[in-house]
Amino acid sequence: MTFVAAPLLLGLILVAVPLWLHRTHREAPRRGFSSLFLMRAAEEPVHAERTLRYLVLLALRCALLAAAALAFAGPVLSGLLREDGGASEGDEARVPLVVLDRSLSMARADVWDDALRRVERLAADGPAVLVGAGAELELLTAARRSISPEAARLGYGGLVSRVAAVAANLPREGTGFALHLISDFQASAVPDRFNALIEGAALPLIVHPVGGTEDNWAVESLQLSGDEAIARIASHADTRREAGVVLRVGEVLAGRTTRVLPARARTEVRFTLPPDTQAALDTEVVVSLESPDALPADDRARAVLRARRSGSALAIVASRDAAAEYVAAAADAAGLPFAPTRVGGRRGSEDWPAGVELVALLDPGGLSADVSRRVSRLLAGGGGVLLAVGPRTAGAGVLPVIEQAVERTVRADAGDARVVVEDPGHPAAGDGWRDVAVFRSVVPVEPTAGEVILSLQDGRPLLTEYRIGPGRVLVLYTALNREWTSLVVRPAFVRFVADALRYLGNDLGALEAVAGAALYVPAASVQVFDADGARVLGLASTADRPTVRLAEPGFYTVRTPGRSTLLAVNVDPRESDLRAADPGLLARWEDAIGVEAVGSAPVAAAEGERGVTDRERPLGIWLLALLALLLVVEPLVANVGRLPGLPRKVPV
Known about the structure:
Distance between the termini: 38 Å
Shape: globular
């Protein structure tokens, strides 16, 4: 017997109310003349006659209050489970679908060995299907002893629905599958809402906890700021500990210190980087703990010290000096590695700088043939162009580079047109557009064929991306001046310029990666190599933005057209906290998904706390029916002898 809302059982205290009222009712009232009230009362017990009506009425009132408290507490009668989290009798005919947690926290030797023994026991009685659960779900066909945990993170929210989707593509045997989840059940992996554990469940669940809570310490993060390396060390232990902390820059030991790490707290450790560390190539920086603990993989954090880039340039073709100054100032404020250079538009490219990696066309009007050829070659090599449209370009009737026809008449808004973010995941979307107003804009004659990133309230495109071969063009349909938009005087402007130019220039300096998590690479063509030089991933030019998953922590080399950079991959810091989830929560999770739930969705949880399925046989409905019956019977019994046609006294 379990309860959905156990705190409501405190309502059983109200059962004492009718007991107290009936006890006081048994005392006989004092009657007599007023003069007798001055006389001292005799100390003699007064016995009231106990009738059957009195006892029945007392029992009915107590039962009514008890039924109300129990009904609202939500009692559930669960099916019996066999020992060690095994399935009930209805589950035994099902094929075990064994989901093995392969996240980083399972890398503890004793925990992983225990998990493999559980897998072997489940497979000993017959056929079983083994699924590994880490960054992604995958069928495991190799020898069980050759399977190992990953450095990825596993969250339990939505897990059973993802497993059900995998099971739907497997050939069913007998009556289907029973889901056996083998995990250490980290508390940090449990979602805030209980419903997230059971949504979309279509298989009966049997949990197999392994391991337990252990002390652990981890280098949670590493940041490089100026000439400092700032490490944050997290303690997931109930005791203090002294640990050595080491800094390595490339192959050089650059610093060592000893710190006392307090219990359940975070400690900041700062190192000064050696002088002249930043060279022509990216440099690996690692901070590690020297003291061993439960998870060695999280005892180090990695960062990349970016090399100074020389020779790269941002060519700005602008009809107005103000727009060029705005973009150059924003690029400098954002610390971009592109040196902005103003060049001519119609007069040719004699002042075109060397090492141009991207171009900003700020209302250029028409372009000379020489500049057009340079821009075309840049796009053919995977470069990028930022095109801001203004009155000169609108007057030409056709946008350069993308050859799109636009209305020659500039659209002026009566009020301030607000910006709508159509693609929040795009790198150039940024933040702060809520405060930006557009006063004038240029409108395409035909519906745009590009990807709309930002639009105005009436649906007109404001920022659109076009693909020209391996290159990309971002078109802003308003001019970068205060007469056309408030963008240039808002904080969002610097963020927009930085994000757009980094994206167009394939600058990967801001990339950060977590092992097993999806990483978006802002480049049209990507190749990823591990520390040994083996290719991990190769993507040809596509219309989609490439996403990479790197399963193991370490340093990787990311190559894009004309660029090669280091990428530091660290473990998810949430995997370092080895505290286990509440066993009562696991029991409720297991009880909430029953045999009868197969092929149908479980009933939604009340107040988001837990779910109830047919297997659990909820008793609340029956108690509510009993409560309704008692509400009818109690007044009838209380009025026996008062209603016409009823006897005035119930015999004892």
